[in-house]
């Protein structure tokens, strides 16, 4: 657990205008894969996620593990509903992901899921398709970033 905390070392300067967390990756950053840059640019607020669970890191780790256990079902719902232009199911899946990602401190993922929701309400299949692809790439990069917390290997092959 200490290694995970060192790996995901977040801090924000309380006096800066930007309260975005800064993430520190291990020295073998290349092993994290190219998609990690998506999360790095968007950030993951570990401190906010930990605060949401009252500082209970084991609970946060469990919630992260559950999210990634359940995520393949949501990914399937997103892609299937998109291919069938079932905008109601697409909106529902995006809404569920929005809540989970927000709770886990993944604000950019939460914003992407909201945008998918909005595109599905507007029945804009092209925009929804682009946003679903971005959301799924973000979540895969987030998985790589969070893997040390839940004891998973952080290479892409060990996470699918």
What is the fold's blueprint, element by element?
Layout: H1 2-7, H2 36-42, H3 46-52, H4 57-83, H5 87-103, H6 107-121, H7 125-150
Helix pairs in contact: 2-7, 4-5, 4-7, 5-6, 6-7
What does this structure look like?
With 160 residues, this protein is an all-alpha fold. It has a single domain, classed as Four Helix Bundle (Hemerythrin (Met), subunit A), CATH 1.20.120. Helix content is 66%, strand content 0%. It has helices spanning 2-7, 36-42, 46-52, 57-83, 87-103, 107-121, 125-150. It starts with a helix and ends in a 10-residue tail after the last helix.
CATH architecture: Up-down Bundle
Percent in helix: 55-70%
Low-confidence stretches: 1-40, 156-160
Q: What's the number of structural domains?
A: 1
Rough outline: elongated
Q: What do the pLDDT scores average to?
A: 77
Q: In angstroms, what is the radius of gyration?
A: 16 Å
Please provide a brief summary of the model.
The chain has 160 residues and is mainly alpha-helical. It is built from seven helices and no strands.
């Amino acid at each position: 657990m200490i290694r995970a905390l060192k790996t995901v070392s977040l801090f924000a300067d309380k006096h800066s205008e930007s309260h975005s967390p800064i993430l520190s990756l291990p020295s073998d950053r290349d092993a994290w894969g190219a998609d990690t840059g998506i999360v790095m640019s968007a950030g993951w607020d570990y401190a906010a996620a930990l605060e949401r669970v009252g500082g209970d890191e084991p609970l946060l780790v469990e919630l992260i593990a559950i999210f990634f256990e359940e995520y393949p079902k949501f990914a399937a719902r997103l892609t299937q509903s998109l291919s069938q232009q079932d905008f109601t199911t697409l909106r529902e899946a995006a809404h569920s992901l929005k809540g989970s990602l927000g709770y886990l401190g993944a604000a950019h993922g939460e914003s992407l899921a909201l945008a998918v929701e909005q595109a599905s309400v507007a029945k804009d299949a092209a925009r929804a398709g682009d946003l679903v692809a971005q959301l799924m790439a973000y979540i895969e990069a987030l998985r790589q970033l969070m893997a040390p917390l839940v004891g998973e290997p952080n290479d892409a092959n060990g996470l699918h």
